[in-house]
């Protein structure tokens, strides 16, 4: 007997359990939902099918010969499509990894207005830190490490060179099928030099014909739309398109101190609207190729194009306010993807990718004015700017090539090699100063990370991986000097720096019981400075630092997960992760001298002891609730600052501007067959909490004079109505329900209360 296990929508269900009751016969469907049962006795039988996230199905069959039985399963938690239910992966392939990994089933969030970064903000150990509203500069933090210390991938391809038009906080959640969060230790098949973890956005790459289109509108004149569609012919010809758009005035309310530009009169704690913060972006991704061929399971040639424009309302802190500065950028990226299984010999799988971004970034500051938060301004004579008069434009000419090969010797032993190469060559110009030598200086890097690994699996209970990584970086730049000593005599000298080092690690897991898994992992990892950290990025208020050194860390993780159920309808799950980080030459952002921009510096030594965990409860398909919490004790262990002979006054201080205690709680009710069979309603609530933390070093200044980022609570509500088993969907959301003051980074205030509505249409046809 054979067949396929699918959802009502036609999507295949991998790793479903198929049992013929009272015979002892059972099998697990493969990654494409196919199953085969041999030696089935003739006669009448009861077929029982189960899969995580789906209601158990029973089907009566009669066997008198070869039989084809395909099963459609009802999504037990189908109503969760707009609800944040975050936990371990739905598939054994991710769930059984030895690494400390949390996976989000993004399909359950496709009806929400969340982008990828805000979906991740609800995972234990993860914080999304942003400078404002839609399209603002943002970065993810995992267990105290943040920014470039966290690497982001799409289907295993690094996003290092995607530019400002393709960021985590403007990518709609509908682009992803699953999002994997690796904490601390990163497997080598995700090639790169992450210091504190990685995010892998997994898209649905199965051959299929589908359309997923949505549009949302909300407060602050915010519009978001996306369309994902694909077609696969029986011949294997495949085409895919993903397109999305974001627009917002971002004119939300903020509380600030304001001074009159003419009289100097002071108006503390004024509630005003942001007035110069519009953002828009449009992006399209097109792939064309073939799938399911002997020479290629997938061979796709693609193109990613897009542009964005963003007003710049503030500097690194809200004491600086602008009214005319803006930035814009583009992405122009051809891509190649090639995957083949059993190349030359059974068990050898190869995956090769390549892309090159020809896009640009530009900062425009040509209006010689000074603004305050009332929108008043003072005009000055002559040529100047609000911060630094410029039309600076640069092309980063950034390319990435990856190659990954896995050889599975047998059920127990497998080997892997991965290589990731990144090239960067910035070309700059400014039409205001076309002859300036500053913009003609070389700014180049070439980075390569090579990884080798071995994995042992034993009896489906014990799994262990060991790996080795080689890092290398070549940086080409110049420094100015005065050859004659005369005023204005400036020349430049070219430098080429080489850096190389080796890291290593291991990860293991063991199932004490079927539902109780323990894990441990360790990595000696390095993170090479990024081109933006070295050379700067005016568009992101970032000043470069040519003296940055690579940072390294010893990362330790110990964790456990446990699932149980009782009274048939009640289910509980527990996850906990203990961590230790011991970093050297830790790179962290700090304010520059005039506090209008940030720059990155090496902190010396930093340690972090922490714990994060999650508890989740569900009752049948009617109710689910859970909470997670994270505590991270990240401390400065640099005893002597450079060129100092005395102990640093900040020794053993918490690293400033970094939240150390935060968490989430959520609850959702589900109502089935509302008004019509197949139509479902869910009503959900989410709470985000962040504890008070200092903006600067805790040992600096008196208690009353210290700047701090206050305790924060954010309450969100949502309601989703799905019709025709999820084909048509309507979602209503309220974010920051109580209009609380929310802050991040250097006390940059985030949006006030907002309301949104989202309409979504989904159709899918499975390609057998």
UniProtKB/TrEMBL annotation:
The keyword Transport applies. Keywords: Cell outer membrane, Membrane, Receptor, Signal, TonB box, Transmembrane, Transmembrane beta strand, Transport. The keyword Transmembrane applies. Residues 346-737 form the TonB-dependent receptor-like beta-barrel domain. Residues 95-198 form the TonB-dependent receptor plug domain. It is found in: Cell outer membrane. Transmembrane segments: none annotated. InterPro entries: Beta-barrel_TonB (IPR000531), Beta-barrel_TonB_sf (IPR036942), CarboxyPept-like_regulatory (IPR008969), Plug_dom (IPR012910), Plug_dom_sf (IPR037066), TonB-dep_rcpt-like (IPR039426). It is a multi-pass membrane protein. Its main location: membrane. It holds the Pfam family CarbopepD_reg_2. Belongs to the TonB-dependent receptor family. This is TonB-dependent receptor. It comes from Flavobacterium chungangensis.
